[in-house]
Amino acid sequence: MRESVLDVLMYLFEAYIETQDIPEINHNDLKTDLVKAGFSVSEIEKAFDWLDKLAENNGIIGDLHDNASSRIYNDIEINRLDSSCRGFIYYLEQINILTTTQRELLIDRLLALNTSEINIEQIKWIVLMILFSQPGQEKAYSKMEDLIFESNEDFLH
Asked: Sign of the C-alpha dihedral, residues 91, 151, 144, 131?
């Protein structure tokens, strides 16, 4: 049985969200499909809550931060996001995939995963989900996809 909230989110993202023709999906039908796919009801509910919070945060977070500012991580964030994760987030800002506001949303959603370890692959998926959920982010989304496929090709060669 698959037991991670991130596994549920990735499954949803790959199976439903990236399709061009998104049907109106009933939560109960979706939950049934996810249980059939091997996910626990508990993790499915957590994933739905995670997505609800993402939608809420997309609606209330404005560009309140100065793009020239530096991010100071608190102790909890430092413990959950190692230096490579923090460096990767900074890199995404520098190449204009993430705004400072999106960075804050990313950090919030990463910490909400409640996983013992957060890695760069997880960050990539969450960034895609955040960018996909926000109107007008097609260019940043495309750049992020390119970054993912380029790094995966590097491993193949």
From this structure: negative
